[in-house]
Write a structure and sequence with these properties.
The protein is of the alpha/beta class and about 270 residues long. The chain contains 7 helices and 6 strands. It has a single domain, classed as 3-Layer(aba) Sandwich (Rossmann fold), CATH 3.40.50.620. The protein has helices spanning about 30-45, 50-60, 75-85, 100-115, 125-135, 145-165, 205-215; strands spanning about 65-70, 90-95, 120, 170, 185-190, 195-200. A 6-stranded mixed β-sheet has the order 3-2-1-4-6-5. It is globular and about 45 Å long. The model is unreliable at about 1-25 (pLDDT under 50).
């Protein structure tokens, strides 16, 4: 499989084990046809490597395909497979206004590495101003409802705009990231958004993802070297202690074991 030129060597946890605009018009899916397409694609993906999985998703599905990235390890692996094959898949990110500086750094590094822009979708100004007026800048920790309202304004609503008119959505979630994601399938039909949702890393482990990033010298968020296994908005993310679950650093003050922001509603 073709690859892009590696970036310069850099010492880090990620490298220490090193070994080696979309096509078509929107598709008005009906549930029966969409489910059949999803099932066929889901059956094909397990035997393929990541490059082949992304290529198969693009080849088998008509219309606009969107990949949403938060610049975590999984998303960087998928972005590399898309960029290095010049696949006609739109890569977008949700610029919530609360991202870590390190996330902006890897965003810039990614664009420089691959020579492609990552489109940003930000919260609507009126909605954000109303949220802050209601909650204050730190009010999201007052209750689960307040936190979900913040996620809705900063992430869910921008995602809906990013996916508008698309036939398929690619994500970087893995089944072993949390108990709530354990039943994740490779490809499914998202009834709420009326599109096909593909999860090309559904059966990967974190170690497989790390190995891929090391092997291909993929740019990554330096917070991963400091114990941040899952990275979201700065106020809602902390490093995890040894032995803690991978997503324990997300919304850690909440008691529920099923913690999501609303982007992947089927995982709740």
């Amino acid at each position: 499989m073709s690859d892009v030129a590696p970036v310069e060597d850099r010492p880090s946890l990620i490298r220490e084990r090193r070994t080696g605009s979309s096509a078509g018009a929107p598709v008005p899916w009906d549930s029966e046809a969409a489910m059949a397409s999803a099932e066929a694609l889901a059956a094909a993906l397990p035997a393929l490597d990541l490059f082949e999985r992304l290529a198969a998703i693009r080849a088998r599905l008509s219309g606009r395909i969107v990949f949403t990235t938060s610049f975590g390890l999984e998303d960087q692996a998928i972005a590399h497979a898309i960029f290095s094959q010049s696949l006609a898949i739109d890569i977008v990110t949700l610029d919530t206004g609360r991202l870590f500086p390190e996330t902006h750094e890897v965003w810039a590094e990614t664009e420089a590495r691959y020579g492609r822009r990552v489109a940003a979708f930000a919260p609507a100004q009126n909605s954000l101003e109303a949220l802050i007026a209601q909650q204050g800048i730190g009010g999201l920790r007052a209750s689960l409802t307040a936190r979900l309202e913040c996620c809705n304004v900063r992430k869910v609503a921008p995602l809906d705009r990013a996916l508008a008119g698309s036939a398929a959505w690619i994500t970087g979630i893995r089944a072993d990231q949390s108990a709530g994601r354990a039943r994740l399938s490779a490809v499914a039909f998202d009834e709420r958004r009326r599109l096909i949702k593909a999860n090309p890393l559904f059966d990967w482990t974190r170690e497989q993802t790390l190995d891929f990033v090391r092997t291909h010298d993929v740019p990554y968020n330096r917070l991963h070297d400091r114990g941040f296994l899952s990275i979201g908005c700065a106020p809602c993310t902390r490093a995890v202690a040894p032995g803690e679950p991978e997503r324990a650093g997300r919304w850690w003050w909440e008691q529920s074991e099923k913690k999501e922001c609303g982007l992947h509603s089927e995982a709740i």
